[in-house]
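Morning F.,

Quick status update on the modeling queue. The single chain you submitted on Monday has been processed. Sequence for confirmation:
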Amino acid sequence: MPQKLDSRSQELLLEIARQALADAVKGQKPSEIELKSLPEDLQADGAAFVTLTIGGELRGCIGSLEAWRPLIREVQARTADAALHDPRFNPVSPEELNLIDIEVSYLTPPQILQYSRPDELPGMLRPGIDGVVLGLGARKATFLPQVWEQLPSPDAFLRHLCQKAGLPPDIWKKQVLDISLYQVQEIR
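Structure tokens below.
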């Protein structure tokens, strides 16, 4: 599990995300950041999702499950993507900038969940703690642990996650799927 970010790193991450949001919405290139000037945990490769909300309502959310670039660069890119390229929403407008709340979810690496019968799956999930990646063949989707707040029962959580992956909502009850779990540090 990646080490938790301390309060200073969290503060810097949110400042840089806020600047990345403004840059993206104004059509500007991301601000240059000198990696060596940042704490080591922000320089290290990290996986993150960036969630944008207005008044508690989702406005954009995009991220990556795999750590492959410095966390600070990942958050810059994902913030811009959430603002401009989430296919569920129109791009964020300049008038919305001051209304947007930003949440960064810093992910642990996903761990494959081994199970042998579909009826075992709900009892292996920890609501509010585990993010879940569900897949079957080329279809794959994830819900962050925060989604448990809207879908607190494992049955509803799995049904909606199957639908997000483009699968029948009850397929998780009929066969063993590819499941991985991860946790997040929420930074707001």
